[in-house]
Amino acid sequence: MTRDQLKKKVGNRIIELRTKKGWNQSDLARECGQDRQAIKKLENGKVNPTIYSLYEIAKALKVDIYQLFGF
């Protein structure tokens, strides 16, 4: 798997988990202390997130961090 494929996979998984909660990007951004544009870029696979950023997103979504990878 390439870096870009992994970023897209993680982004798609975040979208899936976020929409299951009925949240939009702004809701997730507010819950994890990021801005909506950062969430948008992450979900679109445009950025390489830090482990801390992924930790905060997982915490907001109430999932273990490994669930963001969808393996």
Jot down its keywords.
about 70 residues, mainly alpha, 434 Repressor (Amino-terminal Domain), 4 helices, about 0% strand, Cro/C1-type_HTH, Helix-turn-helix domain-containing protein, DNA-binding
How would you describe what is shown here?
The protein has 71 residues and is mostly helical. It has a single domain, classed as lambda repressor-like DNA-binding domains (434 Repressor (Amino-terminal Domain), Orthogonal Bundle). Helix content is 63%, strand content 0%. The protein has four helices and no strands. Helix 2 (25-32) crosses helix 3. The longest helix is centred in the first third of the chain and has 18 residues, at 3-20. The two termini are 12 Å apart. InterPro entries: Cro/C1-type_HTH. Keywords: DNA-binding. Pfam families: HTH_3.
CATH architecture: Orthogonal Bundle
Instruction: Kindly state the number of beta strands.
Output: 0
What oligomeric state best describes the polypeptide chains here? Answer: single chain
- What is the CATH topology descriptor? 434 Repressor (Amino-terminal Domain)
Poorly predicted segments? none
Helix and strand succession? Answer: HHHH
Look at the structure and give the CATH class.
Mainly Alpha
Distance separating the two termini: 12 Å
Helix content: 55-70%
Major beta sheet, specifics? none
Count of alpha/pi helices: 4
Domains, number: 1
Query: How big is the Rg?
Result: 11 Å
The CATH superfamily is lambda repressor-like DNA-binding domains
Strand content: under 5%
* Backbone shape: globular
- The whole-number mean of residue pLDDT values reads 96
User: What structural category characterises the helix and strand content?
Assistant: mainly alpha
